[in-house]
Amino acid sequence: MSLPSPEPLNIPKNLNSQQELQPGSSQNKPEDAPKDSLVLKTGPELQESISSLNTLQNKLEHDQNITLSDILALQETLHHLKIKVGDQEVDLEHTQNIENLNENLKILKEIKEGNLSNTNKLTFLTNEIAEILSKHRGNLYLSGLSSLSNVQVESLSKHQGALWLNGLSSLSDAQAESFSKYQGDILSLDGLSSLTDAQAESLSQYQGILALDGLSSLSDAQAENLSKHQGDLWLNSLNSLTNAQAKSFSQYQGALHLSGLKSLSDAQAESLSKYRGTLYIPDKLQTQIDQFKK
Fold this sequence. Notes:
This protein has 12 helices and 11 strands. It is of the alpha/beta class. Among the domains are: about 15-95, no CATH class; about 115-240, no CATH class. The protein has a 7-stranded parallel sheet with strand order 5-6-7-8-9-10-11, with no helix packed on it. A 4-stranded mixed sheet has the order 1-2-3-4. Helix 9 links the parallel strand 8 (about 210) and strand 9. Helix 1 (about 45-60) runs antiparallel to helix 2 (about 70-80) and helix 8 runs parallel beside helix 9 (about 220-225). It starts with 14 loop residues before the first strand and ends with a helix.
């Protein structure tokens, strides 16, 4: 019976090893490497990998059989090697999941040099770059990012201008709380497909244009919280409302975008007829609402 082959481990081509396969080497210290490159971090993970490699080398030199467990042990230690991507430490395994890694490294370097023209192509962000971007004044496009750490969101929430993060599919409650303090004119989170009640309450405290066009449904509690938001509210993927939600939105103070609605009950239309802001809704539904206006 042939042994199954372990999955290959693809080591990035621009990886800069910070030492030979000898623990404790004083050459090529991490601080000597440019911050826009990948740096192999010294530490116990590296020593474990060296030990596994030495085991294989000894077996080869003494004509001993190399077992599948030997190979898997090496693969496991390699997966947990620590790599510095810019200022960020990540497992080597994680670097394989960063889309367009080389392009990301190039853009990170551009940002540190003051060039923000390619930020929307980033699929990976470091804490250092998040802090740099937080000091930018103006439009900030980061919709290529599918996830952020709490630390990174806290930094970006200090940005002033307009912030597009349409690639995020979810938030933590802590991240929503950070965004509640955002001072920019636009906060676009169109990639979110759902919210918790706590997140809706936090986001409602942000004052500005809040874009949540990825939400196809809301709970009554979430609608009530969002109706307290001050600014424009974009909810164009909602295709229906409950009576309670229509009543909550009738008290909304800003422009309300509900262009995805398919139908309204008479009770919902009557509630929305009491809304005094600018309502973006399909024409046939606006006609239905107008029938209840006095």
